[in-house]
Write a structure and sequence with these properties.
By secondary structure, this protein is α/β, with parallel strands linked by helices. It has a single domain, classed as 3-Layer(aba) Sandwich (Alkaline Phosphatase, subunit A), CATH 3.40.720. It has helices at residues 2-6, 8-15, 61-64, 85-88, 107-116, 129-137, 196-208, 211-215, 220-237, 239-243, 251-257, 261-274, 293-317, 387-397; strands spanning 37-43, 70-72, 79-81, 94-100, 150-153, 173-174, 279-284, 324-329, 333-334, 350-351, 355-360, 368-370, 372-373, 380-382. It has an eight-stranded mixed β-sheet. It has a two-stranded antiparallel sheet with strand order 2-3. It has a two-stranded antiparallel ribbon with strand order 9-10. A hairpin with a 6-residue loop joins strand 13 and strand 14 (380-382). It is globular and about 80 Å long. The N and C termini lie far apart (53 Å).
């Protein structure tokens, strides 16, 4: 089993085609890029907007439950849930979209729409935004990192195919493991309980058994595989393994992020973009709170507050927030009205009519609110924002034309996002983009 895990990275590299670096003109180069990388915090299951970034303290107990307190932020006029005090002091560095909508209440179809901008009713299976960014900013256009350009911490999102028609070359590297443990057992790179010296012995044993390769040293058929194996070992023994080693971080830094899986994943995401990784998704589970919602939120909200605030502040202090987009969202929100009856006992259901999203960095302004919901958070009141508006804005800030076609043979007639007249979109979020980013 451990031997299979050890060589998983080899086959990952082979399947993803990282041996050959392709070159070519980027068809989106006409747009001035502001961002170089993206950190997506995916709140799997869907967070409640009333209990996070769009509180409604006057809506009554049936809507607020025990969370009827708000806290002013460092931006006058903006208030958020009182259980997010650290994020309240950083509101000048992020913007809140309070009018996100798509009307879908099913996990799979809502997640697909939020990740691709396309309806699940279309016959074509489109790639998620991470795979699209990997296509335009990865190996085909000069990315040379040993860690693949698209990484998911720590488990696959699982609701859809992340790569769609693009194929395995653009699949994300899903780390597995838990960054809150020592060591962080990254799939195919770090084996818990196996020392580096023992790994090297295994490598020597494998090479000693390669008698066919010794007899045919110049065989072209073997050259490709040998290059893949070399790159794999560069990941296992080289800088990549060091990047995933959080023990090198000071204790006070790790404490600030929070000594839990989410907090340490945020710290890991910072290290990845700091080392050039293009797209990082943190798959933060546990937000599908059909029952005992408020008990779960008493654990989740402090974790979110600590991890996300530390990430934003850390990127800002290091000069990376200007070039790193952070977006925080689930596939939808939760029902504004609480289900108090059994078996829910204070739960919130799926709700796609109106929910909130956070964006920061990479050309997005801070201290802004886009749109609004009604007095109970049930419907969008002003400026509806649809998934293709949000994803299109992220693409735009990365210098990727959201109206361009996919530059791959199997999709030469397919656009990255549907035209506004054929989708739900109302336009890019220029109101919260730095004016220098608009052409």
């Amino acid at each position: 089993m451990k031997r299979r895990i050890k060589f998983a990275v080899i086959f990952f590299l082979i399947l993803n085609g990282t041996v050959v670096l392709y070159g070519g003109e980027n068809p989106s180069s006409s747009i001035k890029p502001r961002a170089k990388s993206v950190i997506q915090i995916w709140l799997w299951g869907g967070p409640s907007h009333l209990d996070t970034f769009d509180p409604k303290p006057n809506a009554g107990y049936d809507y607020c439950g025990p969370f009827d307190k708000t806290i002013p932020t460092n931006v006058p006029g903006i208030e958020i849930n009182a259980m997010l005090p650290k994020l309240a002091q950083l509101a000048d560095k992020y913007s809140i979209i309070r009018s996100m909508t798509h009307g879908i209440n099913a996990h799979e179809t809502a997640a697909y729409l939020m990740q691709t901008g396309h309806s699940a009713e279309e016959r074509t299976v489109y790639p998620a935004i991470g795979a699209v960014v990997s296509l335009f900013r990865g190996y085909d256009y000069g990315y040379k990192g040993t860690i693949p350009p698209y990484v998911i911490l720590t488990t696959s999102q699982g609701r859809f195919s992340e790569v769609g028609f693009l194929g395995s070359k653009y699949k994300p590297f899903v780390t597995g493991g838990d960054p809150n443990k020592q060591p962080f057992a990254v799939e195919g790179i770090v084996l818990e309980g196996v020392s580096e010296q023992r790994q090297r012995y295994r490598r020597e044993l494998l090479e000693s058994l390669d008698t066919l390769g010794k007899y045919l040293p110049s065989n072209k058929e073997f050259e490709w595989f040998d290059n893949s194996r070399r790159q794999a070992y560069e990941v296992i023994f080289g800088e990549a393994a060091k990047i995933f080693d959080l023990s090198t971080e000071p204790d006070e830094v790790r404490d600030r992020y929070g000594r839990n899986t989410f907090g340490q994943s945020c710290l890991m995401a910072r290290r990845l973009v700091e080392n050039g990784v293009v797209y990082v998704t943190i798959n933060y589970k546990g937000w599908d709170t059909h029952s005992q919602h408020f008990q779960t939120m008493r654990q989740k909200l402090p974790e979110l507050d600590a991890g996300l605030s530390a990430l934003i502040q850390d990127l800002s202090d290091r000069g990376l927030l200007e070039t790193t987009i952070i977006w925080v969202s689930g596939e939808f929100g939760r029902t504004p009205k609480v289900s108090w009856e059994p078996p829910w006992n204070g739960g919130r259901g799926h709700y796609g009519n109106c929910f909130s999203v956070i964006v920061a960095g990479g050309g997005f302004k801070g201290g802004c609110v886009v749109g609004s919901s009604d007095e109970k958070g049930e419907y969008v009141k002003e400026r509806p924002v649809y998934p293709q508006d949000l994803l299109g804005s992220i693409y735009y800030l990365l210098g990727i034309d959201p109206e361009s076609f996919f530059p791959v043979p199997q999709a030469k007639n397919l656009k990255i996002l549907p035209p506004i007249e054929k989708g739900q979109g109302k336009g890019l979020l220029f109101e919260i983009m730095d004016t220098e980013g608009k052409q």
